[in-house]
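Our consortium's second objective concerns turning raw sequence data into structural hypotheses that experimental partners can test. To show how far this objective has progressed, the report includes one record in full. It was chosen at random from the queue rather than selected for favorable results. The single chain below, 84 residues long, was entered without modification.
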Amino acid sequence: MERNIGTVGWFGTKNEAYGYIYLGEGKEIFVHYKNIEAKNQRDPNHREVYPNDVVSYVKGDGYHMQGTQALEVRIERLADVNND
Protein backbone atom coordinates (compact mmCIF):
# COMPACT_ATOMS: atom_id res chain seq x y z
CA MET A 1 0.00 0.00 0.00
CA GLU A 2 1.11 3.52 -0.76
CA ARG A 3 2.34 5.57 2.20
CA ASN A 4 1.30 9.21 2.41
CA ILE A 5 2.94 12.08 4.28
CA GLY A 6 1.19 14.68 6.42
CA THR A 7 1.68 16.98 9.37
CA VAL A 8 -0.17 16.52 12.65
CA GLY A 9 -2.47 19.48 13.19
CA TRP A 10 -4.14 18.44 16.42
CA PHE A 11 -4.03 15.39 18.66
CA GLY A 12 -5.83 15.13 22.01
CA THR A 13 -3.48 13.79 24.65
CA LYS A 14 -5.71 13.85 27.73
CA ASN A 15 -9.20 12.35 27.42
CA GLU A 16 -9.25 12.32 23.63
CA ALA A 17 -7.24 9.66 21.90
CA TYR A 18 -7.58 10.99 18.38
CA GLY A 19 -6.64 13.89 16.18
CA TYR A 20 -6.16 15.08 12.63
CA ILE A 21 -3.32 15.04 10.16
CA TYR A 22 -3.22 17.99 7.75
CA LEU A 23 -2.59 17.07 4.15
CA GLY A 24 -2.43 20.57 2.68
CA GLU A 25 -4.91 22.54 0.60
CA GLY A 26 -7.39 22.57 3.51
CA LYS A 27 -7.63 18.76 3.65
CA GLU A 28 -7.19 16.59 6.74
CA ILE A 29 -7.54 12.96 7.76
CA PHE A 30 -8.64 11.47 11.09
CA VAL A 31 -6.15 9.49 13.20
CA HIS A 32 -6.93 7.35 16.27
CA TYR A 33 -4.18 6.46 18.74
CA LYS A 34 -4.70 2.75 18.07
CA ASN A 35 -3.48 3.37 14.52
CA ILE A 36 -0.12 4.77 15.64
CA GLU A 37 2.31 1.92 15.02
CA ALA A 38 5.10 2.63 17.47
CA LYS A 39 5.03 4.02 20.93
CA ASN A 40 5.84 7.69 21.21
CA GLN A 41 9.48 8.50 20.56
CA ARG A 42 9.36 11.16 23.28
CA ASP A 43 7.72 8.91 25.87
CA PRO A 44 7.84 5.16 25.15
CA ASN A 45 4.85 4.51 27.45
CA HIS A 46 2.37 6.36 25.21
CA ARG A 47 1.12 6.27 21.63
CA GLU A 48 0.90 9.97 20.86
CA VAL A 49 1.78 12.41 18.15
CA TYR A 50 2.12 16.16 18.59
CA PRO A 51 1.20 19.14 16.42
CA ASN A 52 3.73 19.64 13.62
CA ASP A 53 5.12 16.09 13.82
CA VAL A 54 5.57 14.83 10.27
CA VAL A 55 4.03 11.38 9.88
CA SER A 56 3.56 8.77 7.20
CA TYR A 57 0.40 6.68 6.99
CA VAL A 58 -1.79 4.48 4.83
CA LYS A 59 -5.38 5.51 4.04
CA GLY A 60 -8.06 3.01 4.97
CA ASP A 61 -10.97 2.10 7.20
CA GLY A 62 -10.21 1.22 10.80
CA TYR A 63 -11.17 1.99 14.38
CA HIS A 64 -13.06 5.19 13.55
CA MET A 65 -16.34 4.27 11.87
CA GLN A 66 -17.01 7.52 9.98
CA GLY A 67 -14.97 7.00 6.84
CA THR A 68 -11.40 7.05 5.69
CA GLN A 69 -8.69 7.51 8.29
CA ALA A 70 -4.94 7.24 8.74
CA LEU A 71 -3.69 3.72 9.50
CA GLU A 72 -0.18 2.41 10.24
CA VAL A 73 0.89 5.90 11.36
CA ARG A 74 4.65 6.34 11.79
CA ILE A 75 6.44 9.43 13.04
CA GLU A 76 8.95 10.49 10.39
CA ARG A 77 10.15 13.71 12.00
CA LEU A 78 9.47 15.03 15.51
CA ALA A 79 8.30 18.59 15.98
CA ASP A 80 10.02 20.78 18.53
CA VAL A 81 7.55 20.76 21.45
CA ASN A 82 9.67 23.10 23.58
CA ASN A 83 8.43 26.65 23.27
CA ASP A 84 11.22 28.20 25.35
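The partners drew two points from this record. Residues 1 and 15 are 31 Å apart (CA to CA). The radius of gyration is 12 Å. Both points have been shared with the crystallography group to help prioritize constructs.
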